[in-house]
Specification:
This protein is mostly helical and about 90 residues long. It has a domain at about 25-75. Helices cover about 55% and strands about 0% of the residues. The protein has four helices and no strands. It has helices at about 10, 30-45, 55-75, 75-80. Helix 2 packs antiparallel against helix 3. The mean pLDDT is about 85.
Length: about 90
Amino acid sequence: MAVRGLFTCLDRALPDEPVFELLARDPSFGRMVRAWADEREKAVMCGDRPHEDLDQCREARAIADDGENWRRENLYKWRRADLPPGREA
């Protein structure tokens, strides 16, 4: 769901390049993804990044919305997934 494009930045990562993953269940997911988009947009406006990166910014903001919606609809679902059948969280 979260990966909208055919290729992600992980596809372009070098073998030893550090990466950081963030799941929608994290309460800061939307805020963090939007902060990344804001910073990328500023870099485009300053001429440090290509204008095409604005598409990534729009996509990131849509993913932030999707993630927040998912979290609301699935609140604590991930905690229940580890419980044996018939047990409640």
